Amino acid sequence: MSDSSTPEVPVRLPGSGSEPTAPPPSVDDVTGLLRAVVDPELGADIVELGMVRRVDVRPSGDVRVEVALTIAGCPLRAQIRSDVVNRLESHNGVRSVQVDWGEMTSEQRSDVMARARRKAADNAPDTEVPAATRVLAVASGKGGVGKSSVTVNVAAALASRGLTVGVLDADIWGFSVPRMLGVEDRLVAHEGKIHPIEKKVGGGLLKIVSTGLIVEAEETALMWRGLMLTKAVEQFLRDVRWGGMDYLLVDLPPGTGDVQMGLSRLLPRAEMIIVTTPALAAQKVAIRAADMARRSYLRVVGVIENMTAFTCEHGTTYELFGSGGGGALAHDVGVALLGQVPMETAVAAGGDNGEPVAIAGTSPAAEAFCAIADLLIAQAAPPFDAASCTATA
Q1: CA–CA separation, 48 vs 353, rounded Å?
Q2: Which terminus of the chain is more exposed, N or C, with fewer CB under 10 A?
Q3: How far is CA 169 from CA 133, 294, 338, in A?
Q4: In 3-state terms, what secondary structure has residue 272?
């Protein structure tokens, strides 16, 4: 066993006071039995995921297995151990089972997450989102950080580059995208499919879907919980005729609840952008969104720091919400800091008037949003080449 493994007391199987009633299993037999042990978090068996590092079988029928966990303190450790023992005790040649624990390196952990992500994608349900669309879910650990404003402005900046960009307002309760984009038309269905509201932006196009385009008035309160929230997201992905898009930006509700879990199940190929403010306290909350992405096998594209600083008319800059939170979060998660958006009244005014500052202004905030869009296109999450995408062939 490796030096990093932590041995546990062998589990003597029921009735093991006597010798086993069959010859001991081979290493291949044990490995085959362990293929029925599924990591509940990763959704694949521990052999396929490369978690079984070593198997020792003694002539006495005593079996010792080393299992590498993604993290040493994995909360599912007890369940995995129980499943390993239960599977191996089904073999009449096994007298006892000992499970030793190891911890994966960061490279091994990344490889396991990639395998889990591929498996989830292979078994994903059908949606109307084309395979050649890059899906970016915009998340935050808590409300009040300007996540929806960031979503709208980045989407508008991408569209102004001549791209077709979908905007799904998945903040079911707190929908604000329609107002921020100046959209008032209602969603209508045709031939059994809902058609998004379209808005031209420069040489590009926005396709917008929100519960705010369904309810009778903007002030209507949606008293939905759990399953209804998930079903709403599912309907927006399955029953909306999105058509061709370069990007789909999903404005998630704050936190790590039902909508986020539903999206990861329906669109396992989605990637995540995390929005935070400069306050270190906000960064500590925002890292939960990164943890959710890890648990859902979603790649985190990067971090956007919003409300970075305020510069008054005299040129003095004030860090009203502190400093360093965005950089600290990006460092902790191991991703890029995509940009820092300063505080400006023009951003709020543009949201209230339905004219995103990213396309209606020339201020530092507008420049920051456009720089973020350019970085996404060029490096962080470039559009897929539909012509070379085998999934569309």
Answers
A1: 53
A2: C
A3: 17, 23, 22
A4: strand
pTM metric for this prediction:
0.70
Instruction: Mark whether 195 and 312 lie in a shared domain.
Output: yes
Across 49-61, b (16+ Cβ under 10 Å) vs e yields bebbbebebeeeb
Does any domain span residue 390? no
Longest dimension (CA), the chain: 88
Nearest CA to 220 out of 266, 189, 258, 186 is that of 186
Query: Any idea which residue has 């493994």 for tokens?
Result: 5
Instruction: Find the domain containing 205 and state its range.
Output: 124-385
Do 113 and 169 lie in a common domain?
no
Neighbours of 123 (CB within 10 A): 10
Q: Which of 1-10, 39-48, 109-118, 209-218 has the lowest mean pLDDT?
A: 1-10
Cβ-contact 115, 81 below 8 angstroms: no
Amino acid symbol at 241: R
- Cβ–Cβ < 8 Å for 63, 93: no
Please tell me whether residues 213 and 186 are part of one structural domain.
yes
pLDDT at 261: 67
Instruction: Please tell me which residue, 250 or 233, carries the higher pLDDT value.
Output: 250
